[in-house]
Amino acid sequence: MALMPKRVKFRKEFRRVRDRKATKGNYVAYGDYGLQALEGTWLPARVIEAGRVGAQHFLKREGKLFIRVFPNKPISKKPLETRMGTGKADVDYWAARVKPGTMLFEIAGVSEATARSTLARVASKMPVRCRFVKRRVTV
C-alpha cells in the first residue's frame, strides 16, 4: 500500500524551490543511528517503501526502524504526446520534500555494524547521496 495523505485541502500544489538546508528533522531523534540526506529532492512514496522493505528484510525481527519522512506533496504529470494547455495535469504520485540534512530513516536496538550495513542497503535504493550518522550524546 502506497504512502499518501488520507485527505488534503488542495489536490494540486505548486512546484517549489528545494535548495535550502533542513533546519527541522535534521538530527537523530528516535533511534540510535540514522540515514541523513546530503542533497535536496522529492522522494517518491515508492522509493520510501523500497527502503523500508530492504531494511526490514535485512533486520529480520530485531531492532526498530523509524521512517522520518512522509510523502505529502502531490506531483502532477501530463501524459506523453499531449498538447500544452488544457489545465494542470492529474496527480501522478506523492513525494516527500527532502532538503539537504533531512533525516530519512533511523534504527534502534541493533549493533552499530548491523545498523551500518542495513542503512547502506537503504542508501543504495535512494536517489540522493546519504550518510550514516549516530545519535549525539547530550549530558
Describe the structure.
By secondary structure, the chain is α+β, with helices and mostly antiparallel strands. It has a domain at 40-75 and 92-134: Aldehyde Oxidoreductase, domain 3, CATH 3.90.1170. It contains 2 helices and 7 strands, in the order E-E-H-E-E-E-E-H-E. The protein has a 4-stranded antiparallel sheet, covered by helices on one side. A 3-stranded antiparallel sheet has the order 2-5-4. The termini are far apart.
Descriptors:
alpha+beta, Aldehyde Oxidoreductase, domain 3, 3-stranded antiparallel beta sheet, 2 helices
Shape: elongated
What would you call the structural class?
alpha+beta
Using only CA atoms, what is the Rg?
17 Å
Cα(first) to Cα(last) distance is: 41 Å
The residue fraction in helices comes out at 10-25%
Classified in CATH, the superfamily of the domain at 40-75 and 92-134 is Ribosomal protein L16/L10
Can you identify the CATH class of the domain at 40-75 and 92-134? Alpha Beta
What's the number of extended β-strand segments? 7
CATH level-3 fold name of the domain at 40-75 and 92-134: Aldehyde Oxidoreductase, domain 3
Mean pLDDT: 90
Query: Element order, helices and strands?
Result: EEHEEEEHE
Which CATH-level-2 architecture of the domain at 40-75 and 92-134? Answer: Alpha-Beta Complex
How many helices? The count is: 2
Largest sheet: 4 strands, antiparallel
- Low-pLDDT stretches are none
The amount of beta strand, in percent, is 25-35%
